[in-house]
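Example record used in the benchmark description.
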Amino acid sequence: MAVVDASLSANEETLETIFFIAELTIHCTARKPSQRPDLGHAVNVLAPLMEKWKPTENEVEEYCGIHYSLSLT
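Model output (structure tokens):
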């Protein structure tokens, strides 16, 4: 748990998402390129998380330059 910022006050759902993304990261950085997933697969895996963790309308102004209304797929 030392790799997760303690200021996040992460609950179980947040930690599950962090570990899920970490697992995808491990696959994406495999030593052999043939063992890495293609970009389309990574986007398909991450797209549902984008919807799940998208900021509320009140929080959008804090994320300058990121257009959350655009689809990833």
